[in-house]
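The methods section describes the discrete structure representation at length, but only in general terms. An entry of this sort, consisting of the sequence and the corresponding backbone structure tokens, reads as follows:
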Amino acid sequence: MADYTGCKCPVCQQPFAEGDDLVVCPECGAPYHRACYQKNAGCLFADRHGAGFEWKPAPGEMPGRDGGPGAGAEIPCPACGAMNPAGGLFCESCGAPLRAGGPRYAPGGPAPSYGPASYGPQTAPRPDPFQSPQAAMGQLHPEDDLGGVKARDWAAFLGPNAGYYLMNFKRMAVTGQKLAVSFSAFFFGPFYFFYRKMWLPAAVFLATDVLFAYIPQLIQFMVLGGSPLVAGLDLDLFSQVLNVLRVVNLAIQFLEGLLAVYWYRRIGEQRIARVLQSCDSATAPAALARAGGVSLTALVVSLSVVLGIYFVLSFTALAPLMATPLAGMAV
């Protein structure tokens, strides 16, 4: 076997070291860590084998097979990793642009099926997530399998900030990890889930916020205001319970922030599967966009409902306290 020391594994992007257990794809010659090859269930470039794709190392990694002396200078494609002539504008394997800021598609050729798409006369073209810096850095290709769903289907489903989710989904598919930091889910809790159309987690976490945050805070206001409704409340016991509830609520916030992306992936996989079963390839992008994306309406409605309920509860709880001075004035 050739010496691949210094080359990067296409799956984990870690350089091969001396003594690593390697396997080589019999079709294109791409080397892998054996564990990475088995975890990916085959070659990462399997979808391009029929087109005669041949893996080539990056310049300097393998003398005699790269762009060193005696060979034409080559550069790697930021999308699929294939080597291309340094003077080229587009990847000879997948057609992606080789340089940031260059033309998006080959002159005279059709736009790739995974590129920006408009789903109606009044909709603006979506940014192409495969042209994002994160996707280029992680060598994300539209045909990559991310947990049973193609990356191009995820891109149509995700909507805003698709590049962030795609790279996290790829990392989860390769490593099996479930944790990913989502500051939006941590700080906004159930409203993030409403915004991303994750109805069940949104309802569950809204209920926990009401039980562990809103109601205790309301009772605290009543205690501070001297409301007769809490006249017999054991303040010492309530203070201890309140501290426990704050810790529980904070733990739930961390849970939301660390697992929201994973839950989104699981919910998205189910919805995408249902959509693809009910429509053809021509209508799939529009159907996926409708099933996924975000909902400003759900965000505004959920915020309005919560604020309305909180206002009604506050008014009901504090009404007796407000009525006392009014009664004194009437006398």
User: Anything to note?
Assistant: The beta strands are 22-24, 31-33, 74-76, 83-85. Confidence is low (pLDDT under 50) at residues 64-72, 101-125, 133-138, 326-331. The first strand starts at residue 22 and ends at 24. The two ends are 100 Å apart (CA to CA).
